[in-house]
């Protein structure tokens, strides 16, 4: 059955999102995943803002876009459209990581004339996961690793002793200091600032199911879909399936990486994005 984010009669008014804006030039709207924040997109924005204007918002209920009220996933779309209006953006590129990629698809489907290109990072129009059950040991080692990593980012002893035995083993394949430095600098704070309403909105959407594959033929703009070979959160197969259904799409999969592959192989990912952008 086809399921997607639908307007709801209880959908609330758009809120003013906190956003990090960098650079000048043609705009790129950069959308983070769950849990996440604008800062988690720095791996993209620090580089892309040298040639483009990057707009990276905290989605509703994340980071500094605070809310205490429950909301629906459709509210994210209204917020983002309002954000673009606030900055006077008539056309832009979309770049979305995980949940951000799903929202990028929704934006491209709702107003195709506004978006000139689509970059999906570890995302899919029909996302599927093969994440194993989480044990108490997983939670314990993840907590210890996160605390030590915050105190000493990228400490190899912590990575070997706790990181490889924690839930990070499902988010990463290359347990190298660079990825753990990003986790310390961006991910831990974003996790702590992710609100209950944001978690409930995502859970409700996942329980309802999500499938936009039949609608992807409506997206005519050039697309780039990037995936990690060992991604367990939104697996490689579902990302590749999305790429096949997009008409004008380039597909790239990175071996020995997982859901956080932009933090595992950032130079390679940015190089591939640059090459795609230059070809448009």
UniProtKB/TrEMBL annotation:
<protein>
    <submittedName>
        <fullName>Alpha/beta hydrolase</fullName>
    </submittedName>
</protein>
<dbReference type="InterPro" id="IPR000639">
    <property type="entry name" value="Epox_hydrolase-like"/>
</dbReference>
<dbReference type="InterPro" id="IPR000073">
    <property type="entry name" value="AB_hydrolase_1"/>
</dbReference>
<dbReference type="Pfam" id="PF12697">
    <property type="entry name" value="Abhydrolase_6"/>
</dbReference>
<dbReference type="InterPro" id="IPR029058">
    <property type="entry name" value="AB_hydrolase_fold"/>
</dbReference>
<keyword id="KW-0378">Hydrolase</keyword>
<dbReference type="GO" id="GO:0016020">
    <property type="term" value="C:membrane"/>
</dbReference>
<dbReference type="InterPro" id="IPR050266">
    <property type="entry name" value="AB_hydrolase_sf"/>
</dbReference>
<dbReference type="GO" id="GO:0016787">
    <property type="term" value="F:hydrolase activity"/>
</dbReference>
<feature type="domain" description="AB hydrolase-1">
    <location>
        <begin position="28"/>
        <end position="270"/>
    </location>
</feature>
């Amino acid at each position: 059955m086809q399921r997607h984010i639908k307007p709801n009669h209880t959908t609330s008014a758009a809120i003013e999102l906190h956003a990090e804006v960098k650079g000048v030039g043609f705009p790129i709207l950069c959308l983070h995943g769950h849990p996440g924040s604008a800062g988690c997109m720095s791996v993209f924005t620090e580089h892309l803002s040298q040639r483009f204007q990057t707009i990276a918002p905290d989605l509703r209920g994340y980071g500094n876009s605070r809310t205490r009220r429950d909301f629906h996933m459709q509210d994210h779309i209204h917020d983002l459209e309002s954000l673009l209006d606030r900055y006077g953006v008539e056309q832009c590129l979309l770049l979305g990581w995980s949940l951000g990629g799903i929202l990028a698809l929704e934006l491209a489907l709702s107003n195709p004339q506004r978006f000139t290109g689509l970059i999906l990072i570890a995302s899919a129009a029909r996302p599927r996961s093969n994440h194993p059950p989480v044990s108490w040991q997983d939670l314990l080692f993840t907590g210890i690793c996160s605390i030590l990593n915050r105190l000493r980012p990228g400490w190899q002893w912590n990575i070997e002793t706790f990181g490889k035995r924690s839930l990070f083993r499902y988010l990463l394949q290359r347990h190298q200091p660079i990825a753990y430095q990003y986790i310390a600098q961006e991910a831990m704070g974003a996790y702590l600032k992710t609100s209950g309403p944001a978690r409930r909105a995502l859970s409700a959407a996942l329980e309802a199911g999500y499938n936009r594959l039949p609608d992807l033929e409506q997206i005519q703009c050039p697309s780039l879909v990037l995936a990690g070979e060992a991604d367990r959160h939104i697996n490689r197969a579902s990302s590749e399936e999305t790429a096949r259904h997009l008409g004008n799409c380039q597909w790239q999969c990175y071996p020995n990486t997982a859901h956080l592959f932009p933090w595992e192989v950032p130079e390679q990912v940015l190089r591939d994005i640059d090459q795609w952008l230059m070809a448009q």
